[in-house]
Design brief:
heterotrimer, A alpha/beta, B alpha/beta, C alpha+beta, A: alpha/beta, Rossmann fold, nine-stranded mixed beta sheet, two-stranded antiparallel sheet, 7 helices, about 25% helix, globular, B: alpha/beta, five-stranded parallel beta sheet, 8 helices
Chain lengths: ~260, ~325, ~375
Amino acid sequence: MNIVICVKQVPDTETKIKVKDGQVDHTETKYVVNPYDEYAIEEGLRIKERLGEGKISLITMGPQRAKDALKSGLAVGADEAIHLVDEAFEGSDPYATALILCKALEKMDYDIIFCGKQGVDEDHAQVGIALAELLDVPHVSVVTRLEIAEDEKSAVAHREVESGHEVVDTPLPAVITAQKGLNEPRYASIKGIMAVKKKVIPEWNADDVGVDRDKVGLETAKIKFVEVALPTERTAGKVFDEDPAQDAIKVAHLLRDEAKIL
Amino acid sequence: MSNNVLVVAEMRESVLKKICFEMIGEGKRIADKLGGAVEAVVLGHEVGDEIAPLAHYGAEKTYLADDPALANYTAEGYTNVLARLIKETEPILVLTGATTQGKDLAPRLAARLAVGLASDCTGFEVQDGELLVTRPIYAGKAIATIREETTPYMATVRPNIFAAPEPDTSRAAQVEKVPADAGSIRAKVIEMIQEAGERIELTEADIVVSGGRGLKGPENFALIEALAQVLGAAVGASRAAVDAGWKDHSYQVGQTGKVVTPTLYIACGISGAIQHLAGMKTSRYIMAINKDSDAPIFKVADYGIVGDLFKVVPVLTEELKKMRAEG
Amino acid sequence: MFNLSVSDEQKALRDLARRFTQTEIVPIAAEADRMEEYPWELVEKAHAIGLTNIIVPEEYGGGGLGYFEDCLVAEEIAAGCAGIYSSFAASTLGLTPLNVAATPEQMERFMKPFCAEPALAAFCLTEPGAGSDIASVRTRARRDGDFYVLNGTKRFVTNGGVAELYTVTATVDPSLRHRGLVLLVVPSHLPGVSVGKKEDKMGQRAASTREVIFEDVWVPLENRLGDDREGFRLVMETLDKIRAEVAAAAVGVARAAMEAAVKYAKEREQFGQPIISLQGIQFMLADMAIKVEAARLLVWQAAWMADQGLRNSYQSAIAKCFAAESAMKITTDAVQIFGGYGYTKEYPVEKYMRDAKLLQIYEGTSEIQRVVISRGLLHEYRAI
């Protein structure tokens, strides 16, 4: 079974976000593998272990530093990794990202494609689903449990919804986006980390991928960042001091109407 | 292309969700600025009797796609129908709720239409005929303003941000049936599992209700739990309550306990020492109830009540319960 | 060529150790300190990903990496809990004599099965009457045919009672002092091996420290490491090799305390401002940083030399002495910055302080390190 996992490198969520000149300041940022992608990678590994066979390919679109994300995935046991990198890709919006991944995937064999449900930097939660549409395969998003059928031609996925869980049956190939709770990602092993040294990670530029440079990147992005700002500082609000019951009712209404809780 | 705003309605068990009305309200505000109307679309099967509220809340027209294949939501089925409708009616803006369903549908639809999509939006502005949207990034640690460059503009709208307008039940629905051929649907829901009542994880909860020393005894956590129940909230405790043995350490919020980031944090009988604040001060809204007007918690609370929590909390719980039932 | 860069693999290794520590060790550290034990599961998990047995050659099931990598990992684990670090380190210490002097046959017989499963080893050197004065070891290894019959008591054995393998320093004749020492591999299941009470320690309480008692234990000749004149040299070489790692642990403890102090000072407000705005506090933190950075570089130098096959007793003694004393000072100052709260068990710094003290004592006291250093100086400047 050919398992492909789309991986993204994101700033470490522990770091404080700094904003400079209306943009997020990344000068001191430490980058990590997107946490949701770790669930995706782990699920790929588990499927291969369960089936006793399979090939796990990692793919990422990003600048040079994104190779580290691929290396992390190789260190936990993925078989190969491909780095989609080209100046023209920079600043791509979710659509362009999905397009680039789609074109790359068309050059690969895939039976199941995993993505994390969203990147924890820009929180778009679009690429995986858009990728499915562009590849013309079904998708199941925010999956918390996955079972591949015996004949490896379909899968049953559990996904969280507001009121509980949906159980979805989908033929393969399909795109699955991973939600927290899908599994517990394993640690890399020291052997795995050392073995990465010997792995070659091919780089594909726009020509290798087969995508038109004019259709991707910052210039042609369909959504553009105009400005980024920090949320406002916290200060004291309204304090009520009259009658417990009255005050309670007043605040209940404020919670609903002003704070929009409920 | 028209100047109309199309709101994609969402139903749960054949009842329209509140987000639909919030979107219609905000959609109308935007449509007015663009010189168009706000319209809604419903997909489903035999739901014709349930869709009147869309007009009551302001939708000038409601498109109805009715087909057995649409009875349950599927990304592909709904995408097929909506893509066709959007190509036909050419709205300038399509709004979907940033619900599980909406977040599953909108990206597929946007990719089908090859347009941009702004996810989980909390604000909209029309500037020189352009649409600017505001949305949280980095899990809300920063706020981004986005300009949409392709039409129709698409956005998923965060629930509980915009107010639903006042409904006018006299407004008649102008319903137009539209082609409902769902096309090929590959991924299908085969079962729905309802969630049994389970303890909500503190660090993931949207609302947290915490109790402190002011509760005077472990049995009074029942008040906290009742309030939490009504709000679907997680229960937390201050260090004092944990030390007194009223709650296990896993409930502790604070510097040496858990750090929580809910939309609403309600602190009952908690003074708000810095050690506790360290665990909850990034909550979106903080409400505090404490007998002591000098309690430091009031310095950070958005809504504070100086009073006896034994009198305040039950009334608060009742009132919220009433409002929830109405909502 | 002077190069202080860490390779991508080394970075990944350090990040792995850091992540493992954050997830598996930090949450249980306070409890382990209180209960004087930690779950065996931790050893299993560490073993599964290769965080134990790092310096053992790959062909015998180890990580096959160098002392530098070992030190990177040690700093991270000790930053989580010095007691748990010491337990892992004591195991490495127990295996080091084999790494240094075992024949291929001995490696096959002992090292391979040991590394195959999660297990701990221990080094038995110290005795009630033999601390810094190694040559006064009295545990007797009496030769009888193809065996040594072992009798004696070892004190302060970390992992005593949980180790599968003991490497024991014994003497064939106390009057020979250091020339009589032999190093024996003693599997813990051999008849006559027993353990005494657990020491009720000030700090590093997660590590199990016990007496190990040998009563007429028949140890095959083939379990001796090196020949019967090499014992002392092997013990010294073993201690030499491990010294940099212990220094790395001291850096870890110091770093953890410093980070806790920085975080607290940013949050704690007095006199209308966070105390970190006060120069007095800033200067204390700066002094901590100076020591942490300096100690780490000393560790890296000593470890690098060991990996180059260079004798590093002088540098590792400097590293250990400096790092341990820095850790003591830094953890004490960290408690000071926390004030009254730091003095309570609810905050982690008092544990760091209690843990740090042992760093100045075990694996060669600071005084012994100074002996090594002055000896090195005398040798260095012998011509003047």
